[in-house]
Amino acid sequence: MSDGRLLYLNENSRKFAGFNKEKSPFVIIGIPMDITSSYRPGSRFAPSSIRESAQYIEFYSIRNDVDMGEIGFNDVGDIILHPSNVEENLSRISSVISYFQESGKITISIGGEHTITAGIIKGTKREGLCLVSFDAHLDLRDEYMGYRYDHACVMRRISEYGVKIIEVGTRAVSKEEIEYAKQKGILFFTPQQIRLLGVKETARRIITSTQECKSLYISVDMDGIDPAYAPGVATPEPDGLDPTNLLDIINLIADKRVIGFDIVEVSPSYDTSGITSVLASRIILETAATVYKARSL
Amino acid sequence: MSDGRLLYLNENSRKFAGFNKEKSPFVIIGIPMDITSSYRPGSRFAPSSIRESAQYIEFYSIRNDVDMGEIGFNDVGDIILHPSNVEENLSRISSVISYFQESGKITISIGGEHTITAGIIKGTKREGLCLVSFDAHLDLRDEYMGYRYDHACVMRRISEYGVKIIEVGTRAVSKEEIEYAKQKGILFFTPQQIRLLGVKETARRIITSTQECKSLYISVDMDGIDPAYAPGVATPEPDGLDPTNLLDIINLIADKRVIGFDIVEVSPSYDTSGITSVLASRIILETAATVYKARSL
Amino acid sequence: MSDGRLLYLNENSRKFAGFNKEKSPFVIIGIPMDITSSYRPGSRFAPSSIRESAQYIEFYSIRNDVDMGEIGFNDVGDIILHPSNVEENLSRISSVISYFQESGKITISIGGEHTITAGIIKGTKREGLCLVSFDAHLDLRDEYMGYRYDHACVMRRISEYGVKIIEVGTRAVSKEEIEYAKQKGILFFTPQQIRLLGVKETARRIITSTQECKSLYISVDMDGIDPAYAPGVATPEPDGLDPTNLLDIINLIADKRVIGFDIVEVSPSYDTSGITSVLASRIILETAATVYKARSL
Amino acid sequence: MSDGRLLYLNENSRKFAGFNKEKSPFVIIGIPMDITSSYRPGSRFAPSSIRESAQYIEFYSIRNDVDMGEIGFNDVGDIILHPSNVEENLSRISSVISYFQESGKITISIGGEHTITAGIIKGTKREGLCLVSFDAHLDLRDEYMGYRYDHACVMRRISEYGVKIIEVGTRAVSKEEIEYAKQKGILFFTPQQIRLLGVKETARRIITSTQECKSLYISVDMDGIDPAYAPGVATPEPDGLDPTNLLDIINLIADKRVIGFDIVEVSPSYDTSGITSVLASRIILETAATVYKARSL
Amino acid sequence: MSDGRLLYLNENSRKFAGFNKEKSPFVIIGIPMDITSSYRPGSRFAPSSIRESAQYIEFYSIRNDVDMGEIGFNDVGDIILHPSNVEENLSRISSVISYFQESGKITISIGGEHTITAGIIKGTKREGLCLVSFDAHLDLRDEYMGYRYDHACVMRRISEYGVKIIEVGTRAVSKEEIEYAKQKGILFFTPQQIRLLGVKETARRIITSTQECKSLYISVDMDGIDPAYAPGVATPEPDGLDPTNLLDIINLIADKRVIGFDIVEVSPSYDTSGITSVLASRIILETAATVYKARSL
Amino acid sequence: MSDGRLLYLNENSRKFAGFNKEKSPFVIIGIPMDITSSYRPGSRFAPSSIRESAQYIEFYSIRNDVDMGEIGFNDVGDIILHPSNVEENLSRISSVISYFQESGKITISIGGEHTITAGIIKGTKREGLCLVSFDAHLDLRDEYMGYRYDHACVMRRISEYGVKIIEVGTRAVSKEEIEYAKQKGILFFTPQQIRLLGVKETARRIITSTQECKSLYISVDMDGIDPAYAPGVATPEPDGLDPTNLLDIINLIADKRVIGFDIVEVSPSYDTSGITSVLASRIILETAATVYKARSL
Ligand SMILES: [Mn+2]
Ligand SMILES: [Mn+2]
Ligand SMILES: [Mn+2]
Ligand SMILES: [Mn+2]
Ligand SMILES: [Mn+2]
Ligand SMILES: [Mn+2]
Ligand SMILES: [Mn+2]
Ligand SMILES: [Mn+2]
Ligand SMILES: [Mn+2]
Ligand SMILES: [Mn+2]
Ligand SMILES: [Mn+2]
Ligand SMILES: [Mn+2]
């Protein structure tokens, strides 16, 4: 892999469940950027921690009747990052992602802070692109403490790139973000609404809203899930999604248009029983299985 | 603040989310009493831990469409406590509470062990007062190991003061407590009953039962919540309430009669991922927002 | 107790909640075998940890209106185990169990890894015996890494003994295990199915399926429960049972035919807030209360 | 053991390394009193934690060439304590201690907070009694926060009983305590002095100072040791003794006059690697071996 | 305090041991910058953690016979920092420091990462300034991963400002750093050399080397100390200083020329028993006491 | 690498500090065997944990003036192990070791429990082989709980192979082991003796005792070191070696005859601050640097 865009790719990391299957349609990329998190740092350790926990899960998806153990993953390693320059890092991420997406791969990015999604989208063909983000927060601030590339601003930046955004799990917001969302027509679902609507109706509304999209990207900020299930995150926020609902929604909305997804904001130092990393592995597995099945049909 | 009743108030503590808004209707008081807990001590650290976690939450309440960031809180500090004399401490608590309630403030007390609620109620005008307590336990023992001011006896003492008590989340009880509750007409709801009745019917029954009350007090023993969501408590008890239901019930029953509430029994040493303190902060925020809205109507 | 089968029983352990009631119908046996766990070891500490947590729970079962504090338990201590010879250990377990079951006792075994259940069943009269296992895994592999007495093979071994098996909570499986289960008519319920069917219908199907059984054995691999509620297990697996459902199902299916049950795979080192051990204590208490009540009718 | 003084003795606890040897000259008593600790609570769990860690150490003392595994210990259980009444508890402790000392036993008390030593001394024949205390603190305050039976006052109380006191490891003191010590002729050694004098000269001075004593009591507040070696204590204080020096000093000063000793202030919740409890076990073992050998000569 | 240089000072933090004594010669400033740490993040929490641990230590210095409880500290709060712009932050730090040093105060800065020392020195009158740094590392790299303001480069930057540097505790270095140190005449002492020379001779050499200095600054990177005593640091490095030696050296070299000092690189998330924060508090106390005494003579 | 002896070598593990230098004289092999540990399990995670911590240390050895960053290591991966069959595993270890030693490599084995050393020695040419073991225990039992391949028996087995053994750090022993050692002429040094003799004299005696040896093997059971420095071990034992002395002794005794060494008994679950793994990395680095330098002369 000698393309110039891979200059900052370090292939020597631990592999996701030991997988190194070059022919797999799924490429795994670790992006341990952990600079702007305001509360609990440590997402830099998430790629390593999630890869390790993946060693102990079963790779057969009952939900999809797909054996991901056979399909495998191509874990290409971690992106090497600048210690403090976020914009430089977004540019490195963008290069690596564009390389793999042009190679026809579905990219699975393991953060790192949510900000990385801006870099991923920069590296993605954005015409007709829609993004579904699971998150407790809207991340729609224009700036945070004077800075426009904070994790609290990432969906604002992506929205400015012209990507259509739908947010699921919303519950910790500022008034300004809600107003921006309404003004820009950004659909969001609070956990309370999802409990009222049910998983199927929620999924139906997302499907309707993404009907025109040419490609889909899914971003899973693990704080979208309730802290009981995902305690090891940078910014835990009570009253969240339960993992079953998240997996069910992804199962219903992900189809062959999905060009990539990410799992961000896991902070292993606060994941004292390791259950957040295991859950992240399981979400990767089930999302990949759903996409694989959708593409096979 | 030179009233004699504030002799034991130490104003120099960390502030709840940095709030120090003197004009706020909400006064926050730390009461780190941690003497009689029989199992896992450490509730003495809860005021500090909950105040810190509050720094990282959003202060806008979607449930109530109220921005508590604007209304703010007046964090007046911690009560200085005697190392072992519970009755002396209840008297100190009573003085501070009576001062602030007479000043027209809604007091938010952060425990410490549940015993503090006896001191709070002592400092409260009790005519027509009703108390709704969320708790895994009834706390209706006459004495515990020969002692009448243990946290396992607090609702018995308050009941003896003539306050009407309703308990929510009950599941770890002795036979004697159930008999006492039945004999005294103390209504209680087990999580199983709440699942059967639903949140709305549960709330309706509590509302009916408190119709005659002139003022309301809410006590949240965090062990009322299931340990998955609130692991950092002195006495975890499985098969409990989920936070959404607790927040929904408070949202339905709290009205302008609420003169104060407390959050007790958080034990930060056992809250290894910090999620119990964050949840306590969120309960404070949502309860205050509900009360604020009710008073504004 | 001088029967030769008790040669390897060490009576000097800590007692379950301090109970030592010889006349109780319930015998508690610690079996700290912790050899084949592939992921997170430490189930050797579970008997001690669960016994300690039991000191702090209330022994009155609201579900059954039975006061287990009065009935009590006869905690006979731990089985002394060989450091690495699993088959030798299964034989020791078998001896101890057969002694107490022949004495007419209901045995409550606290593991240790799931493999111990093979030893228990070896020591049990197997004619007409049926086993209901709560587990994330099917444990139906023929061998694991070349070994036939691994915890991942335990239900396969027991199935080979001619015992009818029903599994509840299944979600992490290999394709081979599913095929074996189907071929042998082993009924299993995924959490998704249980959510669809509801607890009552699930229980009804288990009851139907066990109608012909002469005796019942219940095995609770704590990883059957969702990691939010039981983080301290050897192999956490997301998207699991919630404890309320598990307790409700046991409450519906356990009757006077139950001759014993076990709690296995708790790994206290990963139970950072101690909630898994408390839950295990509560499951022991409620299951015993249900069985006691069934036998009293 | 039906003496009235044993009313509050609960024999059903876990045993120290499983020992229950009635003929041993050494009696072990757990005293889990944990009421007045101002900083990090949890010494209530120390008797259980130290007893468990003792299961894994070797019982042969190289220092003394004595096999304590042969001599054994008679672990008689824990004293049952009042939840908040310190003085009542000191009286219970006093009764139990006086019973065993009158029976000619050497009592090894495992705290709990340092305050228990006042109860132990109350139960001891005090004529000609001298006490050597290893502690970072002098514990010579007259009162602490208005209370005279706080752990910070224990040596003051014992000094008032007329017992001669020598303190070793002193480094965290108030000016008043130093003045009191000087005025009353209470000898104390800071770690700096011990480094200058050397272990042998320090021991020589203690021996000279205790020459007239008829009986000796040794109290080991684990915070006397440096927090690197004993992190799990209620009040860690840097720049302390290393365990080798403490063991060497005890080895030199303990002789046949020793009528008992205690280990206090271990707080297992803060002993994250368990090394403080193991060290406490080792100190118990070595001190007992030294005393045993001295009595055998 | 309305000087423009205090724009980014947030006065509302928790106070060091509750101290707020405006007349004290010692100003405490929290600088929670935590951006470039390559290994274990979390130094952002150190100011809060160290301030809390200070509540529980005694303020009398036996080493200096000075009661710091009487002299007190003026804790002015934390500097508000940009999420990722290190240079902007160094400029904010520089402003605050210059204000307090011009006011004649001795500044005690609590980091945050070591990089903050560059900001502090920028805000300091540098003519004749010498800096003594306790550190496992030389921090003399020209750049780290392409960045010149990394914590691994801080002494290189300060050296470029023309400040004379002496390093103590050196043991984890690159060859380039050693060569740079030799070339620039930067004196450094490895722990091995200090063991050979002894504390007094080491101090004598430092005193000789700083004889011409007009003012002194002391920087304590807590990783200079051995990880046994200071486990909670960003980059633990074995074979280090013991705290007694560090305190003794500071005691010998600090005199009335000291214009400030800092404690950096504490990472509370890894300080599982809290002993690193307590040690940091004790170093602050003893260093201040030494400086106070030197200025009083 | 297609030699049959490498059948059980899994090359896909994380690399030691990312090193994969095939030409290095040093081969690193992970041997995560964790079956017979009687106390605190988890050494199975040590190879992964030590490799990760190595990423953050400097590779220049001041002690030896050797830059191991240039020389590098060839990390060949982990040995795949049977879940419970110790003897089978020793045979797999023996095969892999014999392959690399025949290839002229110096093998650095990262355990796993101490038992692995028996497998390593089985794979080593034993004529004239001497082994220096750093350990709190003698590991000279004939059997432990009926089993001859327990970690408490490993030096007994190796002694029976005819290898000369010297033990350093001995302090937790049974009387039988001491007698066996004396009878077989196995030299051992307690930490007390080493403090008396000094490091140089201790080393001199070891050198004298190994003068006739044709090749040397060094085994570092991390519990040889004091638990303050190495808390994360299976069996912590107070009053141990400090790491400086251990590194100094290795530095003095290791010469060009060294054909391999191992680091065993690290238990990362108990290494809450990670300092044990960092220390293990540093010991590997310094030992390799010493051997490299000795071979270069
Ligand atoms: Mn986000
Ligand atoms: Mn978020
Ligand atoms: Mn309560
Ligand atoms: Mn309660
Ligand atoms: Mn199982
Ligand atoms: Mn399982
Ligand atoms: Mn003390
Ligand atoms: Mn003390
Ligand atoms: Mn530094
Ligand atoms: Mn450093
Ligand atoms: Mn060993
Ligand atoms: Mn050992």
UniProtKB/TrEMBL annotation, chains A, B, C, D, E, F:
It is an enzyme of class 3 (hydrolase). InterPro entries: Agmatinase-rel (IPR005925), Ureohydrolase (IPR006035), Ureohydrolase_dom_sf (IPR023696), Ureohydrolase_Mn_BS (IPR020855). Its cofactor is Mn(2+). Keywords: Hydrolase, Manganese, Metal-binding. GO terms for molecular function: agmatinase activity; metal ion binding. One of its GO terms (biological process) is putrescine biosynthetic process from arginine, via agmatine. Mn(2+) binds at H114, D135, H137, D139, D221, D223. Its EC number is 3.5.3.11. Binds 2 manganese ions per subunit. PANTHER family: ARGINASE/AGMATINASE, GUANIDINO ACID HYDROLASE, MITOCHONDRIAL. Belongs to the arginase family. Agmatinase subfamily. This is Agmatinase (Agmatine ureohydrolase) (SpeB-1).
